[in-house]
Write a structure and sequence with these properties.
Elements lengths: L2 H8 L5 E2 L5 H11 L3 E6 L2 E7 H10 L9 H4 L13 H11 L3 E6 L2 E7 H24 L10
Parallel strand pairs: 1-2
Antiparallel strand pairs: 2-3, 4-5
């Protein structure tokens, strides 16, 4: 299974933010849209990732609020990325190694989408459920011992 399989099911809605935008506005957008991350784009390029983890760290660093802080001051400026052709086993390994919950999907310099750890887990469970269903169907159709093939 590849990342493209997840994006096909997930759809193409993307939420981005500019690095010079006030962090408070980005946090409002995350809360309003009920999303855990925003891709930070500048001049059409991916320059960072803002997730609830970076927001919480910024709040702690700023003694309980975001004040006048900009997204640039809080974002992860070296986010983990993958491509549409990256295998799901590799994505799981990468996300676990870096404790990443969100990963931008890139095609060269073009942002194709964002996958979450939830998306990856759901894809694995769905795949296993399908495989189990096929195995159970196969077992039900198993020829009885001594029966001759038709």
């Amino acid at each position: 299974m590849k990342v493209s399989d997840i994006l096909r099911v997930k759809g193409g809605t993307l939420f981005t933010v500019h690095p010079d935008e006030p962090l408070a506005r980005a946090v409002d957008a995350m809360a309003e849209k009920d999303i855990g991350s925003l891709v930070v784009m500048e001049h059409g390029d991916l320059v960072g990732m803002l997730t609830f983890r970076e927001v919480i760290q910024a709040i702690v660093k700023n003694k309980g609020g975001v004040g006048t802080m900009q997204v640039r001051a809080a974002m992860d400026d070296h986010p983990l990325t993958c491509t549409t052709e990256t295998d799901m086993d590799e994505v799981r390994r990468m996300m676990l190694d870096r404790h990443a919950r969100y990963m931008p999907v890139m095609d060269r310099r073009m942002l194709m989408g964002v996958i979450s750890f939830y998306d990856v887990a759901k894809a694995v469970v769905d795949s296993q459920n399908f495989e189990n269903k096929m195995l159970k169907a196969y077992i039900r159709d198993w020829p009885e011992e001594g029966a001759s093939p038709a």
